[in-house]
Amino acid sequence: MINKIIAFFKNLYSVEKEETEILDGTYFHEDYFRQVEFCPKENLEFLKKENNEVNKFAEEHSDGIGFTDIYVREENNQKTIHEKQIKLSDLNLILLNLGLEKIEKVYTGYSSFREVCENTIAYKFDEAEIFVVTENDLVKDFFITGFRFYENQEIKIKLEEILYRIGTEYDLILNDWDLTEIIDLNDRKEIKKYLNEEF
Predict the structure, then answer these.
(1) Which of 21, 32, 72, 135 lies at 20 to 30 Å from 106 by C-alpha?
(2) Cα dist. 194→1, 36, 70, 76, 149 in Å?
(3) What is the pLDDT at residue 4?
């Protein structure tokens, strides 16, 4: 059963990729915005509580096919990534030195609708992408797509290195809202577990 679920997500991702290859940049579906996001480590306890609330809400509002209501994530009472004062110029240097391709034109949308994301750039390695939204050369939003479901071990090792470097450089954790899991990016074992779909 788990293999069928993994195959479903792989197919879903490849279909979306095919739909967007014609663009002169890269694209993320609007549902992916900050769905797997870098967060200040200071938010660890807050995120644990919020992930528990999401899980509780999902159990209470699942009808077996979908959900009967929408959960709005709490944004207050936590340190924002913007407050970390991460300079885009510094982050850019780190990601380029790690071998990622920089993509200056980023689109978002849904179905056939597309629009350019202002003040947003992306960095890509294979099919994995990092999206950075900026304000006055500081990182405002910072999230990823496509980092899981790889079979190639060399790619996984590279993705582990990318996540570990970002985490240790800026003292960040990764929160995956789909899985309601927090990944300590200062811990290679945690990163490996995440990349190997062991959550």
Answers:
(1) 72
(2) 20, 12, 26, 27, 10
(3) 42
